[in-house]
Amino acid sequence: MGVSDKQNTLVGHRLISTKYPPIALFDDVASPEEFDMLYAIQSLTNPRLFDAVAPFTHINPNGGRFNDGLFGALYIASTDQTAAIEVKYHQQKYWQNIEGLAYDRFLFRNLLITHKPSPVYVVDSNDAEILNPDNYSASQQLARNLKKESYQAVEYSSVRSENGICWALFTPKPVCDVVQSYLLEMIWDGDKIAEVNKVQHMVDLSESEPS
User: φ and ψ at 93, to 5 degrees?
Assistant: First the structure.
């Protein structure tokens, strides 16, 4: 569709696994030009901002829809439902390739990410090549071109969540704030993700008073 200079601040959702501890911020920094921004974010008091820069410091070698193995992207969904559907699809695909993975329960933290990307490239919702559900070659090439043209993000329709909108941020610069909202559990039955539930009550025993 083309360029959009969004002036309004946006709030989206991102799910991150709670299974592993936070990673060191400066390990494998994506590119030298991002170093100053990553350092600035690290100096802020909100520890949840660390989660927002993780995709730029530890890059998935397999890439994603709008990033390849050479640069990262922060993926954000317009609603928590869209975020859950997207993560469920990718996690299920991943877990199905793990031999011997029987019943298990995985927890994810839902983060509310306030961001203001500008300029942002808006993908036409009818662009079947860029929005191919399984082949990311065209969308990754578009992302490489957009980065060269100094776009901060791309906005696109989710191919797995009806009416869902997603953003892929090429830089942490548009991130204004990150706030934790709730925990989500995904139940693996040995073949597929059988359940996705919000965790209503979670007791932190490490902070309990001794009896």
Answer: -60, -40
d(CA 133, CA 63): 14
Classify residue 67 by its DSSP letter: B
CA distance 187 to 85: 14
Structure tokens at 43: 């100096």
Distance between CA atoms of 137 and 141, rounded to whole angstroms?
Answer: 6
Q: What is the C-alpha to C-alpha distance for residues 31 and 41, in angstroms, rounded to an integer?
A: 15
Cα–Cα distance, 174 to 114 (Å, whole number): 8
Q: Using CA atoms, how far apart are residues 18 and 48, in angstroms rounded to an integer?
A: 12
pLDDT in tens, the chain (211 residues): 555 555 579 999 999 888 643 433 333 344 545 555 554 555 454 556 666 656 665 567 778 899 988 888 899 999 999 999 999 999 999 899 888 888 899 999 898 999 998 899 999 999 999 999 999 999 999 999 999 999 999 999 999 999 999 999 998 888 888 888 889 999 999 999 999 999 875 544 344 444 4
Residue 121: which residues within 8 A CB-CB, separation 6 or more? 2, 3, 4, 142, 146, 151, 153, 154, 155
Residues recorded for the chain: 211
Give residue for tokens 């139940």: 187
Radius of gyration of the chain (CA): 18
pTM of the model: 0.78
